[in-house]
Amino acid sequence: MKIPFIDLKTQYETYKEEINKEVLGVMESTQFIFGPQVTKLENGLAKFTGAKHAISCSSGTDALILALLALDVKAGDEIITTPFTFIATAEVIALLGAVPVFVDICDMNYNIDFTKIEEKITSKTKAIMPVSLYGQTSNMDKINEIAERHNLPVIEDACQSFGAEFNGKKSGNLSTIGCTSFFPSKPLGCYGDGGALFCNDDALAEKIRSILNHGQGKRYEHKYIGINGRMDAMQAAILNVKLNHFEDEIEKRIEIGSRYSKLLENCEELKTPSVFEDRTSVYAQYSVLCKDRETLSKKLNDAGIPTAVHYPIPLHLQEAFAYLGGKEGDFPVSERVGKSIMSLPMSPFLTKEQQDMVVATIKA
Ligand SMILES: Cc1ncc(COP(=O)(O)O)c(C=O)c1O
Asked: Whole-model pTM?
């Protein structure tokens, strides 16, 4: 039995008729940019998250850059974030000439250690950007408290946590602006690139909408320097179908993630992920800390079980960020976790039989 890392095939087969119908509908309508599918998606996303404004866009990366542009982040500004994330989080900061200021992670859930944020705030700090890694948020109450004390906005990089909750509130709707990704392998994924921003401030929402369409208000009247950050109608049509099934998929994700943790509870070779009591994880990745990652991944791969490493090299040690002067030892938790973290196959379509095989192979 060969197990898919993320089973997009079974998912497509399950919703095929609905998806094909909606995609064909877009082609027949020839409304490829904006239009009813995009409006429907934004209404659905707002309802799902409880945010007043849900704004669709072209990717998670663009959602992050739009958030920074809307908050007037400029060259030389400092943005506090984590070095243990996908590069896009810090890349967008650097692209604007701003400076990513890293804070190490907490070794319980691999998110930014909020107790270390305040010591990094300076007169140049413009925003705090926590990442809800692997599908679970940080303690957003604590981060918002710190931000309020210093009059700073918070941008949640919720690219991996769409559908997760913190104190009963949805990820994406926990801070000044929330940004998510609909990359195909994300908890809610489209069939190409897509993303969304969430906020509760009317003026900020209007500004984001304008910036993602070349800074236009009225057609060919440009108030801001913007980008082409629009989501296309085809992706919106696919997401509209998938959003209808998303609550069920979240339930399955939680069930499968919890079952992994229970079955691997006493396994000495690895540490299962901790999920705090006041939140849920949608397990964008089910990632474990291994005693010996190389041997374990080889045995799993040889048995037809794919694994992945999210992420082997923290951002302060990446060549692209060498100009920041980071060095080994700066962020010891991120470095340690990067050396032993490994993700197992995970999707709402992972069967009990497949999961049992993964667990049995690990235990063997
Ligand atoms: C934490 C994080 N931030 C940002 C992104 C960027 O999203 P996208 O690939 O949709 O541009 C991703 C997705 O890979 C991510 O995992």
From this structure: 0.98
pLDDT 10s digits, 218-272: 999 999 999 999 999 999 999 999 999 999 999 999 999 999 999 999 999 999 9
Select from 6, 56, 57, 86 the residue to mutate for testing ligand 1; criterion: most ligand atoms less than 8 Å from CB.
86
Q: Which atom of ligand 1 is nearest to the CA of 64?
A: 4
Ligand 1 centroid to residue 60 C-alpha, Å = 5
Q: Give 246-363's CATH code, choosing from 3.90.1150.10, 3.40.50.2300, 3.50.50.60, 3.30.465.10.
A: 3.90.1150.10
Provide the residue count of the chain: 364
Pocket test for ligand 1, best of 112, 183, 232 (most atoms within 8 A of CB): 183
Q: Which residues contact 90 (CB under 8 A, 6 or more apart)?
A: 81, 83, 100, 102, 315, 321
The answer, yes or no, to whether any atom of ligand 1 lies below 6 A from the CB of 285, is no
Q: Decide: 245 and 218 in contact? Cβ < 8 Å.
A: no
Q: What is the secondary structure of 103-142 as a DSSP string?
A: -PBPTTTSSB-GGGTGGG--TTEEEEE-B-GGG----HHH
Structural class in CATH, domain 8-240: alpha beta
Structure tokens at 334: 């991120």
